[in-house]
Amino acid sequence: MLEGAKSMGAGAATIASAGAAIGIGNVLSSSIHSVARNPSLAKQSFGYAILGFALTEAIASFAPMMAFLISSVFRSKKESFSFASTSFFPALVK
Known about the structure:
The protein is mainly α. The chain is built from two helices and no strands. The protein has a domain of 48 residues.
């Protein structure tokens, strides 16, 4: 039961990657529309677009971190954490 909950939690955390892709598309779309409406502000809107990309990508990088935390922190009481754990390096542990 714990394994299923960990898998569901990690899967739910990775849904943020799809949200980040949608967010990047929105930022790019807004940047293109703003330059098309007022080309003289292209340099300023480019800076805002880069800031929007950076913030959206930060969310996308937090999603795999949360998935790894969910899958590695919530272990059963029988398992103890080791660097060569079976969940990270299955070939090293026999």
